[in-house]
Amino acid sequence: MKDVFALGAFSDNYIWVIPDAGNTRALVVDPGDAKPVSEGLRARGLELAGILVTHHHGDHCGGVRSLLRERDVPVYGPAHERIPGRTHALEDGDTVEPEGFDLRLAVIDCPGHTAGHIAYFGDGMLFCGDTLFAGGCGRLFEGTPAQMYATLQRFAALPGETRVYCGHEYTQANLTFAIETEPDNDDLRKRLERVRAQRRDGLITLPSTITEERATNPFLRSDSASVRAHAQQHAGRTLSDPVDVFAAVRAWKDSF
User: Fold this and answer.
1) Given this model, what pLDDT does residue 118 score?
2) Does residue 117 have an active-site annotation?
3) How much is the pLDDT for 55?
4) Quick check: is 94 catalytic?
5) Pick the catalytic residue: 60, 88, 117, 230?
6) Where do runs of H (alpha helix) occur along the chain?
7) Catalytic-labelled residue, pool 20, 55, 56, 230
8) Euclidean distance between CA atoms 242 and 165, whole angstroms
9) Is the pTM of this model over 0.70?
10) Which sequence spans correspond to the domains of the chain?
11) Residue 230's closest CA among 187, 180, 192?
């Protein structure tokens, strides 16, 4: 298990740091702001060795150019989005094996939040940006419900122990909504109680796991009879299939 840790940025962003085996060099994921990266790595005696970007939104890649002025390192990012300083353009099925790291990450196309969004999966870790959140999923700024549903189904099929490293501390808000969609879900109720306690203590709620998301995340549970029934009640219409349920739940969350 990699000793991955988070650096906070802005009000609720997480920049994930993956140290090498010797704990001297590190990769960073989605550095929206350069300052916490520079300060956080320096405080831990780590040297920046590479940057992984999931999508083009500024709070995920806005710090890249400043970091490159400090150190010239590889920048991995989606091939179909404009990523500052990108040196490696990635598509579905590509792999990332940074020099000096015992790490192999598979690239997964995950359109929905943005059209060209990608995720990185390997060594029991999923770095998914703003696609899958703990207890939720990203807004559909550029993609369709069908695209996002298909993406989340790919994630749901990953091994259950996979650790989910997403881009924001949205867990409590997501689960507060989720309980509306499935109030009879005991796993969800217990998770919400635990997360509320973590946040009261100022603790990070990530990473989660795919198993936990399958059990409690309504956006991975469009085939649940309870989620479907409550989504239909809220939408005031019959929902014909899981994609329709997903779209209704996403619209419900947007107005929550």
Assistant:
1) 98
2) no
3) 98
4) no
5) 60
6) 34-43, 58-61, 64-70, 145-156, 171-181, 186-200, 210-216, 225-235, 242-254
7) 55
8) 25
9) yes
10) 5-254
11) 180
Q: Which amino acid is at 83?
A: I
Number of C-beta neighbours around residue 192 at 10 A: 20
Distance, in Å, from the CA atom of 183 to the CA atom of 132, rounded to the nearest integer, reads 21
Residue 192 CA to residue 236 CA, distance in Å, equals: 27
| 168 in catalytic set | yes
Among the options 20, 30, 56, 57, which is catalytic? 57
Which is the catalytic residue, given 20, 30, 109, 130? 130
59 is an active site residue? yes
CA 174, CA 135: separation in Å to the nearest integer? 5
Is the pLDDT score of 78 beyond 90?
Answer: yes
Active site residue 57: yes
Residue with tokens 């309980």: 179
Give the active site residue among 113, 117, 230, 244: 113
Please write the tens of the pLDDT for every residue from 98-122: 999 999 999 999 999 999 999 999 9
Look at residue 1 in the predicted model and tell me its pLDDT: 47
User: pLDDT tens, 206-242?
Assistant: 999 999 999 999 999 999 999 999 999 999 999 999 9
Q: Which of 30, 59, 109, 244 is catalytic?
A: 59
Indicate the fold that domain 5-254 takes in CATH: Metallo-beta-lactamase; Chain A (3.60.15)
pLDDT (mean) for 5-16: 98
- Dihedral through CA 8, CA 53, CA 154, CA 236, nearest 10? 60
Q: Please report how the helices 242-254 and 225-235 are oriented relative to each other, as an axis angle in degrees rounded to 10.
A: 60
What is the edge-to-edge ordering of all strands in the sheet holding 95-96? 95-96, 105-109, 118-122, 125-129, 163-166, 208-209
